[in-house]
Design goal:
The protein is α+β, with helices and mostly antiparallel strands. It folds into 3 domains: 67-186, Beta-Lactamase (2-Layer Sandwich), CATH 3.30.450; 252-337, Helix Hairpins, CATH 1.10.287; 344-502, Heat Shock Protein 90 (2-Layer Sandwich), CATH 3.30.565.10. It contains 14 helices and 13 strands. The chain has helices spanning 2-10, 14-39, 41-65, 72-78, 121-125, 130-135, 189-234, 252-303, 307-338, 351-362, 385-401, 433-436, 460-470, 495-502; strands at residues 85-90, 95-99, 138-144, 150-157, 162-172, 175-185, 347-350, 370-375, 380-383, 408-416, 419-426, 474-480, 484-492. The strands form 3 sheets. The protein has a 6-stranded antiparallel sheet. The protein has a 5-stranded mixed sheet with strand order 8-10-11-13-12, with helices on both faces. A two-stranded antiparallel sheet has the order 7-9. Strand 4 and strand 5 form a beta hairpin. The chain is rod-shaped, with a radius of gyration of 52 Å.
């Protein structure tokens, strides 16, 4: 049965689960409270009777101690509730004042007026004799009274009748009274049944209301989830601009909606970049393919009989093929970097030695330049050696492209703010400020004409930026048109230096 209930609950929707849980918990609490109230109805009725009697005794005590003379008329005046019966014994005058319906019960102490006060001294100082009462079918229990000098008795008979009796001796000046106030506890069976029925009807109504409230609460709680679902259904490849409404209270659901909106924004940005990437890649590949196709047609028409045309065409085709090969390599590198598929193997190595190796390799290039190395000290960095070398070579290739033979390329090595830094400066053509802000964008080239005298793909600096960021480094550029360009590259120092507070 329990397993079946669990399976049934698991099959419910979240809204129905919230409704059932809210209504169930509230209903259980209500039923528990109702049970305890119903069980204690008798106690409540008994306590109400006690309070009535206590109030009457207090009024009589106050009247006597304020100098009032007790009499039958005074007693009737003092009684606030005619259903409370009172028996007052004036032990000095041997008189009894009473207000009772019919004959006094057996347990009420009676004093014949003709007897002397001293004969009743033992009587008034003792409790009821339980043996005698039990013989007559009564059970008596004595409890502590509300006030000093009071004795409170709970008396039950064989016939099911129950009484509450309070006795109190009141002394004022030379007067002495024994006050007995009692009342029969009403038969509460009918009251209990009536009260139980009303309580049951109230419980049914409240349980029904609790499930309605639970349904309303679940609907309000899950409204953002429904909006997320509806928004997700409206999103398509053609339209990624849909967003979830985040108006309303600042709660967890709003945070969830904002998280989904952020995810949708990232998806839209990523899709736009992907489209731009595909478009740019197609454009970059279309040009060399067109060139190769053009020279192939040229060879087909005239190259077979003209060695000059044939040679020129072959060289051009080889150049464009090499360009395509480099472009495809860089595209594959960026594609892997976007998917975090390029392993990064960081190690501690000497930045000065790496720069010197690059300068040595540049010396055997076709386009030689004057190179200068400015170094303050030996700098150790913590990064991927091969990647850092690739980054620096990208800067060197750009410097070779955009400088003349007599130009100078300067390598500046130093430490700054916890980083090992290497600046690569040239005095070439430089860039305009609008180009500087976009130089790291994919396929962007400052030479917008894409002239063939300066080959390139527009991907090198994008790769350089990715390498720097992947190695916890930084890259920036300063350039002025006609004056030259400086690339600033920073990489973390060795760990022991960073621990000393240099980063």
């Amino acid at each position: 049965m329990l397993k079946r209930s669990k399976r049934l609950f698991s099959s419910l929707t979240i809204a129905h689960k919230i409704t059932v849980l809210y209504g169930g918990i509230f209903s259980l609490a209500l039923l528990i409270i109702s049970f305890f109230v119903l069980v204690n109805v008798t106690v409540i009725v008994q306590n109400n009777v006690r309070m009535e009697i206590v109030k009457i005794v207090e009024n009589i005590d106050e009247y006597i101690k304020n100098g009032g003379t007790m009499s039958q008329e005074a007693l009737e005046t003092l009684l606030e509730n005619k259903y409370v019966e009172v028996n007052i014994v004036d032990t000095k005058k041997n008189k009894v004042y009473k207000n009772s319906v019919g004959e006094l019960p057996f347990f009420v102490r009676k004093i014949p007026p003709e007897q002397a006060y001293n004969k009743f001294e033992p009587w008034k100082n003792n409790n009821f004799q339980s043996e005698e009462l039990e013989e007559r079918g009564f059970k008596v229990s004595l409890t502590k009274g509300f006030h000093v000098g009071e004795k409170e008795y709970f008396i039950s008979g064989r016939d099911g009748k129950e009484f509450v009796l309070i006795e109190k001796e009141i002394k004022f000046n030379e007067d002495c009274y024994l006050v007995q106030a009692f009342k029969m506890i009403p038969d509460n069976s009918y009251y209990v049944q009536s009260f139980g029925l009303r309580l049951f009807l109230i419980d049914i109504f409240c349980i029904f209301l609790s499930f309605l409230i639970g349904k309303y609460i679940s609907k309000r709680m899950l409204k953002p989830v429904e909006e997320i679902q509806q928004t997700a259904e409206r999103i398509s490849i053609e339209d990624l601009s849909q967003r979830i409404d985040t108006s309303g209270p600042d709660d967890e659901m709003k945070e969830l909606a904002e998280t989904f909106n952020s995810m949708f924004s990232r998806l839209e940005t990523s899709f736009q970049k992907q489209n731009q990437f595909v478009s740019d890649a197609s454009h970059e590949l279309r040009t060399p393919i067109s060139v190769i196709q053009g020279y192939a047609n040229l060879i087909n028409r005239w190259g077979k009989s003209d060695p000059t045309v044939l040679e020129e065409s072959i060289q051009s085709i080889l150049a464009e093929t090499e360009h395509m090969s480099q472009l495809i390599k860089k595209l594959l590198f960026l594609a892997k970097s976007d998917q975090n598929r390029i392993p990064i193997q960081k190690e501690q190595f000497n930045l000065n030695e790496l720069v010197k190796d690059i300068v040595k390799e540049m010396s055997v290039a076709k386009e030689k330049r004057n190179t200068v190395i400015e170094e303050q000290k030996e700098v150790e960095i913590y990064a991927d050696n091969s990647m850092v070398k690739q980054l620096l070579w990208i800067h060197c290739e750009n410097a070779l492209k955009y400088t003349k033979k007599e130009s100078t390329i300067t390598f500046r090595i130093y430490e700054q703010d916890g980083y090992g830094c290497v600046d690569i400066q040239d005095n070439g053509t430089g860039m305009a400020q609008e180009d500087v802000t976009r130089i790291f964008d994919r396929f962007y080239r400052a030479d917008k004409s894409r002239n063939k005298e300066i080959p390139g793909t527009g991907l090198g600096l994008s790769i350089a930026k990715w390498i720097a960021e992947s190695n916890d480094g930084k890259i920036s550029v300063e350039s002025e048109l006609g004056q030259g360009t400086t690339f600033h590259n920073k990489f973390p120092l060795e760990k022991k230096n960073r621990k000393k507070g240099k980063d």
